[in-house]
Design goal:
The protein has five helices and ten strands; from the N terminus they run βββββββαβαββααα. By secondary structure, the chain is α+β, with helices and mostly antiparallel strands.
């Protein structure tokens, strides 16, 4: 869980070390520009919205108990725990993100910069808004429901077709339509012998 309290930020219950210099939340729209031959202007088509980006800048320096690089290592442990192969979505709670409707994020980037004349590290954290892929879940469930409804519909249609057989076809089914040449006036052994002699 990540949230801000005054000038501090917590991730999974751990206060981010250092001084929080800034928190920025950015939202963008998806707009395509189209080329039109013979026109100086490019018509624009809105297609949706980008996921929001949250950028946090920290300043790390030495403390009586930790060096700035030990504090940076604590940040990296939050970014990627040992054995973690895929970033996991984490809830985010802060006034800045709540104002943009962002409640879950992915920890996208962790970077730092050391300046030769300063005793501090400048650290940048980037989070991307996490939007669950409910479209795939919905489409798969709709496929299964449509598949089940399709199968039930087909069985219903076959049942209705049996109920609507023409009288001529019903008569044909009830009449004797002949016998197989393999069993016509033959015993079991003779019938099997005739079957084995039949051409394929």
């Amino acid at each position: 869980m990540i949230y801000t309290e005054d000038s501090s930020v917590k991730v999974n219950g751990v206060v981010l070390p250092g001084l929080v210099k800034s928190i920025e939340v950015k939202e963008s729209a998806k707009i395509d520009e189209q080329e039109v031959e013979g026109s100086a202007t490019k018509p624009k088509q809105a297609t949706g919205y980008e996921d929001a980006k949250v950028n946090i800048e920290l300043i790390l320096d030495d403390t009586p108990t930790q060096t700035k690089y030990q504090r940076l290592e604590a940040l990296r442990a939050i970014f990627r725990t040992p054995g973690q192969s895929v970033p996991k979505p984490i809830p985010i709670v802060s006034e800045a993100t709540a104002a943009h409707g962002v409640d879950k994020v992915l920890f996208k980037t962790l970077s730092h910069k050391a300046e030769s004349k300063k005793e501090q590290l400048s650290v940048s954290l980037e989070f991307w808004e996490y939007v669950p892929t409910t479209i795939q879940t919905t489409s798969s469930s709709s496929k299964s429901s449509s598949g089940s409804s399709g199968s039930s519909g087909s069985s219903g249609s076959s049942g209705s077709s049996v109920g609507t057989l023409t009288s001529d076809y019903k008569n044909y089914l009830q009449t004797s339509r002949g016998k197989s040449p393999a069993v016509d006036d033959a015993g079991t052994a003779a019938a099997l012998d005739k079957v084995s002699q039949m051409p394929y």
